[in-house]
Amino acid sequence: MRSLLAFSALAAALVLNAPMRVQAADGASFDDTAKFLAGMPPSPNSPLAPLTREASWQQHAKHFDASWTGLENGQLGKVRAWTARNMTAPPWA
User: Fold this and answer.
1) Ramachandran class of 64: left when φ > 0, alpha when ψ lies in -120 to 50, beta otherwise
2) pTM surpassing 0.85?
3) Domain-wise residue ranges, the chain
4) 43-75 pLDDT, tens per residue?
5) Which of 19, 21, 42, 63 would be 48's cystine partner, CB 3.0–4.6 Å?
6) Any idea of the CA torsion for 14, 18, 20, 24, to the nearest 10 degrees?
7) φ and ψ at 39, to 5 degrees?
């Protein structure tokens, strides 16, 4: 988990420091900015949308997708399966 956080911080730093048209982000919503930094596409009308066509952002998004897939397969999926088997009713019910 620590390596995922370190990777995420490094990826965000690389994207933020990449030579991009910073002025294109003027007026972007907080939601679109968060999505963009997380490797998720912002809304189509966002000023950040054109930046998602750049190779650096696409690579950033692929790394985040791979990291989440690894976390899902290695940990989260197991937790969900255990929860479905063992937590059928609230303990206070």
Assistant:
1) alpha
2) no
3) 2-86
4) 999 999 999 999 999 999 999 999 999 999 999
5) 42
6) 30
7) 80, 15
